Amino acid sequence: xxxxxDLKNGMCIExxxxxxxxxxxxxxxxxxxxxxxxxxxxxxxxxxxxxxxFTAGVAIEPVRVERRPxxxxxxxxxxxxxxxxxxxxxxxxxxxxxxxxDLMREGQVVEAMFHTEKEMVLSAELPPxxxxxxxxxxxxxxxxxxxxxxxxxxTVDTGAEIRVPLFIQTGEKIRVxxxxxxxxxxxx
Length: 188
Description:
Layout: E1 2-3, E2 12-15, E3 18-28, E4 36-43, E5 49-55, E6 59-62, E7 65-76, E8 79-84, E9 90-93, E10 109-115, E11 120-125, E12 129-137, E13 151-156, E14 161-165, E15 173-177, E16 182-186
Antiparallel strand pairs: 1-6, 2-3, 2-6, 3-4, 4-5, 7-8, 7-10, 8-9, 10-11, 12-13, 12-15, 13-14, 15-16
């Protein structure tokens, strides 16, 4: 059994009968009263984020998770179908368990997080940065703006819409940060 002193970002814990991942935590030692740990926890079953405060030293129940590589095959009415890259086992993951699912294309490799004791899928994560092609964006003209960091909407090859700088044109290849959905860089 672990305590709040063992908390780390990315650690999975069992809390109120559900599995959560620690998004961030902060040990607080006020001048008056006992120390406590302020946390932000993300529910891996429904994706909701909650704030919770633990008393310092309280027991927490860590969950053993395993990350496995899966390749995205297709989407149907059951969800997104994936194949394990080594064993070729196929699984279906609900779209709500995948962040930024509209940035995912067929053949994309993702990391599926499994609860090892229950052998249950908790979530799936895209790689941090992916390459995409801009299929449509309005032309940006020199002198349109007074500042240099103005963004315009652009549609990429998966159909998702992201914001790109004014100099990006239709047909160009760009890198996108999948965690923030932001333009990362242009590929030459």
